[in-house]
Amino acid sequence: QEIFRDNWNDFVAHCKATNKPIRNSILTNVENMINCRNLKKGYLFFECPKCNNIYIQGLSCHSRFCVSCGRKYRDARAIEISKTCIYAPHRHITWTIDSSLRCYFQKYRALYNELFEAVNDVLTYLVQGKSKSAKKRNERLGFISTIHTFGRDMKFNPHIHTLIAECTIDNTGKKKPFTYFNYISLRKSFMNQLLKRM
Asked: Where would I find the beta strands (DSSP E) of the chain?
């Protein structure tokens, strides 16, 4: 909060001066986060009727961007997701795109959904492929995907993180181990599916 309080106005002024507009949703979230629990913006007042002790609590911003408020959302989301997970070993795969394609994702944000769909296509084909019996049983991998739009260097770099269970599950709920992932094949398939969808 202090870092943003000290630097946010200068950053906004710099963006205006260099003609780099900031989306309204970002402006709103940052302003809310800066004012989170600020007593000047409102508060709750509690008083004990027996001992007359008082407690004043500033109103929270409820922004997912806020370190304290956003943590509640993340924790609640993690609990909900864990309820749907398959009890099995998991592995983590990151799907990224070539730097020459990133400008299209920055301009056409609807393409983010195509990233998810390309991952789904690749993982579905990985299990079902040309197998008629696997298609008939609708064998699938259990996985959860999330998108990050920036890399560690804070430059625009949309990529997807996927947590994949090392087993398949079919229509009847039967599980089978699935531990072999050919990363070269996955990479090529993802490139192919994403370019088709774009």
From this structure: 43-47, 54-58, 90-96, 140-150, 156-169, 175-177
